[in-house]
Amino acid sequence: MAVARQAAVPVSDELELVARILKQDHAAFEALMRRYNGRLFRVARAILKDDAEAEDALQDAYLDAFRHLAQFRGDSQLGTWLVRIVANHALMRLRRQKRDPVVVPFEPRAQAPRLDAMQVADERIESPPDTARRAEVRRILERRIDELPLPFRTVFIMREVEEMSVEETAGCLGIPSATVRTRLFRARAMLREALARDIDLAAGDVFAFAGARCDRIVENVLGRLRER
Q: 189-205 pLDDT, tens per residue?
């Protein structure tokens, strides 16, 4: 379920990148954003459950990080520091949404597959039907993750998708390590239960025979009988 973990960046490289950004080197800041975009987007998306809102929160977080980068002392990894910022921005947006008296009807938007961000590169040449099936499985999983309560959803994304350590996750969320473990255990259990229900409901339709297939076989057999 987890994607390949982003390679750890040596502290010296991070500090060098920070030093360049503090000198208003926008190319260095672009490199930083491209390095951490995937992780930070998923954290924001886990909290907000909306792609557009997550993108906006991420952009605000980057601007905030740029303004306060001088406060980064290298005591933690740069990625961890950025996760704290984007999580705070996402949570602020979530609180504003809950205070907003205007009710906006929920209309699921079509989402383009994020195969490059969510999956390990597949060296095999995949057929269009296989690609479509894999995309559908991913959408089902994303939908079930979205249904997890916020505390469990956020921990699940950080630990299982981004493969952050227990200590990193605890530090970003400001909770004890034991709580991270408990929430991850519960999130896995809830996902297993939801996916098991999906499988049970779909089992009755496996290798469905009705409809066009049934008509086609009947017509073919009758046609062959008429030819005798």
A: 999 999 888 888 777 66
CA–chain centroid gap for 3, Å, is 10
d(CA 103, CA 101): 6
Counted residue by residue, the chain has a size of 228
Tokens matching residue 112: 């383009």
Query: Is residue 2 a part of any domain in this protein?
Result: no
What is the spatial distance between Cα 102 and Cα 100, in angstroms, rounded to a whole number? 6
* CATH number of the domain that residue 115 is part of: 1.10.1740.10
Domain that holds residue 91: 11-102+111-222
pLDDT tens, residue by residue, 46-68: 999 999 999 999 999 999 999 99
- Alpha-carbon distance of 138 to 118, in angstroms, equals 9
Q: Count of domains in the chain?
A: 1
